[in-house]
Amino acid sequence: MLKTESISRTRSRLAAFILMAGLIVPAAAGAASGARQVDGPTLFDGAEYFVKAPGKKEAKPVEGTLGFDANTKVARFMAKGNNQLFEIPYGLITSMLYERTSKPRYAEAILLSPLFLLTRSKKHFLTIQYKGPDGQGQFALIRLDKKNCQTALATAEAQTGIKVERSEER
């Protein structure tokens, strides 16, 4: 009789654990995606906007947050410190392109282990092409965080109504 009570108690604890895991894991997965919604806009942290300064050859990345606002129908990039770098109305967006690049990890292979030559670093970019205020074509190049790039692409397609073209380098 004592053994049956012990087995029954173990089963009920296991069932309670499975139930709690079923409630906690989806909540943690949503938090880990890197997307957050604050009063309307869907924000994606860990993004970098490449800004080319006049007279410079290379664009420098500015860390911040990419946001899509369904209420005002604009895509915007906020640098750290809440400095808005761009705001593009959905109606002016002409196309969007997603590119995934990969390259061997040479530095890690030299410094740490030759096994790093078997792996590749991956970077995710979203290029938004739009019409500027003067009617000229312009673009914004944004590097997305690997944790939320797929969610950001799905949000961009859903809110703008424009299909994101995909170009993935293998």
Ordered list of secondary-structure elements with their pairings:
Blueprint: H1 2-32, E1 35-37, E2 42-51, E3 60-69, E4 74-79, E5 83-89, E6 93-104, H2 106-111, E7 120-131, E8 137-144, H3 149-160, E9 164-168
Parallel strand pairs: 6-9
Antiparallel strand pairs: 1-2, 2-3, 2-8, 3-4, 4-5, 6-7, 7-8
Backbone structural class: alpha+beta
Q: Quick one: overall form?
A: globular
Kindly provide the radius of gyration, computed on alpha-carbon positions and rounded to a whole number of angstroms: 22 Å
Distance between the termini: 62 Å
Q: Approximately how much helix is present in the residues?
A: 25-40%
Unreliable segments of 5+ consecutive residues: 23-32
The profile of the biggest β sheet is: 9 strands, mixed
Total domain count: 2
What is the CATH topology assignment of the largest domain? PH-domain like
Number of strands: 9
Corresponding CATH superfamily of the largest domain = Pleckstrin-homology domain (PH domain)/Phosphotyrosine-binding domain (PTB)
DSSP helical segment count: 3
Helix and strand pattern = HEEEEEEHEEHE
Strand residues, percent? 35-45%
CATH class division of the largest domain: Mainly Beta
- Give me the CATH architecture of the largest domain, please: Roll
Rounded mean pLDDT is 81
